[in-house]
Design brief:
It is built from 4 helices and 10 strands. A 5-stranded antiparallel beta sheet has the order 5-6-7-4-8. Strands 3-10-9 form a 3-stranded mixed beta sheet, with no helix packed on it. Strands 1-2 form a two-stranded antiparallel sheet. It is 17% helix and 29% strand. A hairpin with a 7-residue loop joins strand 5 and strand 6 (71-75). The mean pLDDT is 91. It has 2 domains: 2-35 and 139-197, FAD/NAD(P)-binding domain; 39-136, D-Amino Acid Oxidase, Chain A, domain 2 (2-Layer Sandwich), CATH 3.30.9. It is of the alpha+beta class. Its cofactor is FAD. GO terms for molecular function: flavin adenine dinucleotide binding; sarcosine oxidase activity. This is Sarcosine oxidase. Residues 4-179 form the FAD dependent oxidoreductase domain.
Length: 201
């Protein structure tokens, strides 16, 4: 198999594709029918001067209502930092990878404080020290896809990781290396096959 890039060509017997939010454009059907890109906003709110957080405070997931938007997660301030990361996950609005809005507006910052911080997390001010945007590429059941491409021989697809792939990347890398070299891995990956979406494949 020949892979052509702007820096030259690569010849390989097998290819593993893990292209994140560009998977639909790169891989075509059935992935273009299965994957959605969802824009996510991350915020670091300034600690108030009198706020005290216990050493080794845990990360948290806070559910404060019945809706999907009534959930936030966060990480405590690290030593020397004067802010706390608080974020949510949204799967309502889809985005396109090449036009993903990477900016966070002042109104989005205020909305996040009003809906996720105010009256719920003590010790944080409305001032946002920094913000960021990332993208989750999600499947219909929010789990991974790890399988052979149905139309491209010797191409293994590893996507989408639906926002939680980074926690499993080392293990998946090992399993996929075993699969490419030995034809199988120590870990059973069948739960992530395309077969579960048989109507779309």
């Amino acid at each position: 198999m020949r892979i052509t890039t702007e820096k030259g060509s690569i010849i390989a017997d097998k290819v593993v594709v893990s292209a994140g939010m560009w998977s639909t454009e790169l891989l075509g059907a059935p992935f273009s029918d299965l994957l959605r890109v969802c824009r996510q906003k991350l915020f670091w709110f300034e600690r108030q001067q009198d706020a005290v957080f216990a050493p080794r405070s845990p990360s948290f997931i806070m559910i404060h209502g019945p809706g999907d938007a009534d959930v936030s997660y966060g990480f405590p301030p690290l030593p020397g930092e004067n802010s706390m990361k608080v974020a949510t996950e949204q799967y309502i609005e889809d985005s396109a990878p090449n036009t993903l809005d990477r900016t966070v507006t002042a109104s989005e910052e205020q909305d996040r404080f009003d809906t996720q911080i105010k009256g719920k997390i003590a010790g944080l001010s409305p001032h946002v020290v920094k913000s960021s945007v990332c993208a989750y590429t999600v499947t219909p059941d929010y789990h991974f896809i790890i399988d052979e491409h149905p139309y491209l021989k010797n191409v293994t697809v590893v996507s989408a990781c639906s926002g939680h792939g980074f926690k499993h990347s080392a293990g998946l890398g090992l399993a996929l290396a075993q699969r490419c070299i030995h034809g199988k891995s120590d870990v059973d990956l069948s739960a992530f096959s395309l077969a579960r979406f048989s109507a779309a494949v």
